[in-house]
């Protein structure tokens, strides 16, 4: 029985190390969301942190429209982060969430 438990603990450690490595790799990725036909772009890293925002000068005239475009671009980028996280962590056979490595912003 102890042999089985030792093997189980070894596999758990290996899985945790793999999960940590995948999360670090995901954190280095940059995902871009756009709105208004590219008038606003938002770049997030794989942890969901905003890195950059670009606003086309033509979008500045109408403040309410600009606010909507920024929000839409952020939501688009955030959705891309979620998709990348699911793709990246999918290689763990669905166990990623069980190991405390939830998806960014979920």
Unreliable stretches: 95-101
- Rg over C-alpha atoms, rounded to the nearest angstrom: 19 Å
At CATH level 2, the architecture of one domain is 2-Layer Sandwich
The helix tally amounts to: 2
Return the string of H and E elements.
HEEEH
Major pleated sheet: 3 strands, antiparallel
**Net shape:** rod-shaped
Number of strands: 3
> Helical amount among residues, as a percent range?
40-55%
CATH class of one domain, please?
Alpha Beta
- Beta content: 15-25%
Written description of the protein model:
The structure is a single chain. The protein has a domain at 21-89: Nucleoid-associated protein YbaB-like domain (Ybab, Chain: A, 2-Layer Sandwich). The chain is built from two helices and three strands; from the N terminus they run αβββα. It has helices spanning 2-28, 63-89, and strands at residues 30-35, 40-45, 50-55. The chain has a three-stranded antiparallel β-sheet with strand order 1-2-3. Residues 95-101 have low confidence and may be disordered.
């Amino acid at each position: 029985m102890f042999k089985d438990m030792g093997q189980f603990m070894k596999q758990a450690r290996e899985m945790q190390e793999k999960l940590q490595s995948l999360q670090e790799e995901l954190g280095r990725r940059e995902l871009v969301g756009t709105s208004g036909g590219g008038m606003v772009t938002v770049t997030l890293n794989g942890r969901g942190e905003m890195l950059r925002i670009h606003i086309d000068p033509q979008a500045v005239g109408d403040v309410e429209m600009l606010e909507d475009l920024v929000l839409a671009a952020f939501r688009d980028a955030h959705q891309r982060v979620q998709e990348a996280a699911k793709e990246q962590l999918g290689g763990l056979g669905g166990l990623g969430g069980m190991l405390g490595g939830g998806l960014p912003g979920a």
